[in-house]
Amino acid sequence: MAPFLPASLYSGACAAALVKQEAAESSLKAAGASPRPFLMGNMVPAPAEKKIQMYSKDFYVACSLGGIVACGATHTAVTPLDVVKCNMQTDPKNYTGIVQGFRKIAGEQGVKGLFRGWVPTAIGYSAQGAFKFGLYEYFKKTYSDMAGPEAAKKYQNLIYLAGSASAEFFADIALCPMEAVKVKVQTVPGYAKGLADGLPKFVSQEGVGGLFKGLTPLWARQIPYTMMKFGAFENTVQALYKYVVPKPKSECSKGEQLGVSFAAGYIAGIFCAVVSHPADNLVSKMNAAKGVPAGEIIREMGWMALFTRGLPLRIVMIGTLTGLQWGIYDAFKVYVGLPTTGSAAPEPAKK
Length: 351
Hints:
Blueprint: H1 13-30, H2 57-77, H3 79-90, H4 98-109, H5 118-147, H6 149-154, H7 156-187, H8 195-210, H9 215-244, H10 254-288, H11 294-301, H12 303-308, H13 311-335
Helix pairs in contact: 2-5, 2-13, 3-4, 5-7, 7-8, 7-9, 9-10, 10-13
């Protein structure tokens, strides 16, 4: 049985158990017997205590894997909401509301129409999640070390914001090609069935460079969103432990800590949706309308529509997404033996 995580993320008893199990299964195969069926009980158990050294290479690998699971799974799960939202943004005359949008798409295209673009969504946001969470942990630690102990504590919010902005810069480069194809598939009737035919068609019509034409507005949408997502989350976690949870984080069970992560993530998601919504409208319009500049789209929509069109649905979607992402991400960290995120900046390295 292949391990669920890279072997380097396990040590001690867990690594020994993995080696022993693989040797036993090899012996069974050599003897002509069938290995045991894959069962949950056969999986390598998560470490009972921290086995991965904080801020080591394995730590960042684990955080990147957690980001893949958190972002890829959640964005794929809410594909129907995303389909309706994108159509409301790009064709408001025919898609006048959330419920009407669901009914129209399901009525004209069937239920499968609500899941158009799920493959580029899964691939694009998995790649984005790896960079977003893995690099955030890296930049947060790096900037804390550069600042020194006193400054890192005093200016922790600047470190959260700088770390998240730096991470998202690279995450959006990974996301942009799949985002471009996804929006075309979801908003242009008859354009393509999915990634397999949508990507070649997109490249043949607009070239490889066309896959990145939305990168600047994507940065404008995602960098403020991610700065809010991580900064608001870190501060909300601290506030919850200080004013709501009746005991320190160190005395809370892992389940209680994960509950705090989800609650803080949802609260942060509401702020994220409001901050990033104008750029989200712009990205959807630019990817749906070939060659139309941002200025013309803004003049056509108007500033009020740019800030408000599709906002209630985006708040529901992003609030839920962000809460689930932080819950899943921290659950993954707990699974591999790491502490949950927050509630203070990392201790800078001693110089």
